[in-house]
Amino acid sequence: xxxxYNIFVGPFAEMARxxxxxxxxxxxxxVSGVLYALIALGFVLIFKASGVFNFAxxxxxxxxxxxxxxxxxxxxxxxxxxxxxxxVMFALAVCIERAVLRPxxxxxxxxxxxxxxxxxxxxxxxxxxxxGGNPKxxxxxxxxxxxxxxxxxMFGGLVSLQKIDIAAxxxxxxxxxxxxxxFQKTRIGRALRAVADSHKAALSVGISLNQxxxxxxxxxxxxxxxxxxxxxxxxxxxxxxQIIALKALPVLILGxxxxxPGAIVGGLIIGIGEKLGEFYFAPAIxxxxxxxxxxxxxxxxxxxxxxxxxxxxxxxxxxxERI
Length: 323
Hints:
The chain is mainly alpha-helical. It has a single domain, classed as ABC transporter involved in vitamin B12 uptake, BtuC (Orthogonal Bundle), CATH 1.10.3470. It has 15 helices and two strands. It has helices at about 1-10, 10-15, 20-50, 55-75, 80-100, 110-130, 165-185, 185-195, 200-205, 210-235, 240-245, 250-255, 260-285, 290, 300-305, and strands at about 150-155, 155-160. Strands 1-2 form a two-stranded antiparallel sheet.
């Protein structure tokens, strides 16, 4: 009975006792969820273009952030460094298309997937060679990202909203919405979906795989840069940041690997679910000592449970193969 109370009654009673803390928790979960959705969007774009999970997206987030900070430390003005970093991500997209993707056209998906593994470790080694292995501080002030907090009186208490979190939520939401419209409503978006369905069919109707792959990987690089700036502003830019980027995997499982709206909804579910679990459910079930570390694995548990009921994701298409 005590366990049932801790699961179904205790957390909700705690929410009712301190509604201001609940709003604070929901806000933090919302911000994390939007950033998770932004990370997941990079994975979705690559998957829609090649049908393979891009394991290198996490290290692309780190590489973009390190390039920006490294250029600034070398004496390049902040906004010029930002433009050069965008150019670097375009050059990276071209190199990936020519050196990795072009030789592997029409190869099995597992070959492309393993190629992204190789790309990951190449970027790790190259990044450490050029920028070193020490964490770096994101140039948030130089990019005029806001500092401080906004305190809102609410439900007899105060809800504190960090200005950097507000900016991150707004920028990430705008990018996700813009890219969703671009890839759903434009000719490039239709070509991308055709490439995802069949490389041979896309080539037969005159779609250039090379151009589509460069566009998509460059777009994923811009998403990685925005993610690196936002996450780096909340913490240091280091190679450990790629672990956070892999939180996109449970987001994709929930939303579907080919759905931009799914990335948004999945990100919000994981972000808010993590925070509610961290502050309410895990301490009530596991106790205060064990419950506070649940945020590192709860997203994967939610995804695993979700796979049992809808393996294709909320917005994914159920694929039926006839034998």
